[in-house]
Predict the structure.
Amino acid sequence: MNTKHIRQYASAILLFIFICVQLNSNAQTKKEQAMTTIKTNSSILSNSIDDVAAIRALEERFAAAVSAGDVDGIMKNYIPDQTLHVFDVVSRKEYYGADAYRADWVDYFIHYKGAPKMIVSDLEITADENIAFSHSLMTSKGTDIQGKPVDRTVRVSAGYRKINGKWLIVHEHISVPVNFMTGKFESVPKP
C-alpha cells in the first residue's frame, strides 16, 4: 500500500468517525428536545392556575352549601347523572348516581339541629385539561338532634371532570382511618 492509499484510508476512517459523532450528537439533541417538550407540555397542562382556582371555588361553594343546609347547592357541585360514584363514610355506603347521593344529603341534615358548619382544609388539587383530583380534610361542626356537640373530621379524595367548561365532582371517597388491630375507627387529626 502506498502513501496515497494510506492517506485516503485514514481520511475515510476520520470521516466515518466524524459522521458517527455527528449522528450521535444529533440523536442526543433530539432526545433532549423531546424530553424538554414533554416537560414543557406537562407543566403547561398540569395544575393550570385557572383550573385549580375553579376547583378551589367549587369546594368553597360546596362547604357554604353544607353550612347553609342547601341540598340543591351541594348537588350543583356534582355531575347530575347516574355516572356519579361516591363512597361515603356514613353508614359506610356506596352511592351510584346523583339521585341516590342527594337522598344521602337529605338524610345527613335530619341528624342535626340546624345546619352544621363545614370546613374544608388541607385541600391539594392536581388538574390536567379536563380531569382533576383532590384530597382534603373536611370537618363538620354542629349540634346533633339530642343536643350533643358534633365535631367530626373525615378525609376526602375527589375526582373531577371539566364538562362544557365547568368542573364537576364525578367520584368521591370519604374515609376515616381504621386501626386494624382493634377494628375501630380512629379520629382524623383536626386541622
In short: The chain has four helices and eight strands. Strands lie at 85-88, 93-96, 117-128, 131-143, 149-163, 166-175, 178-179, 184-185.
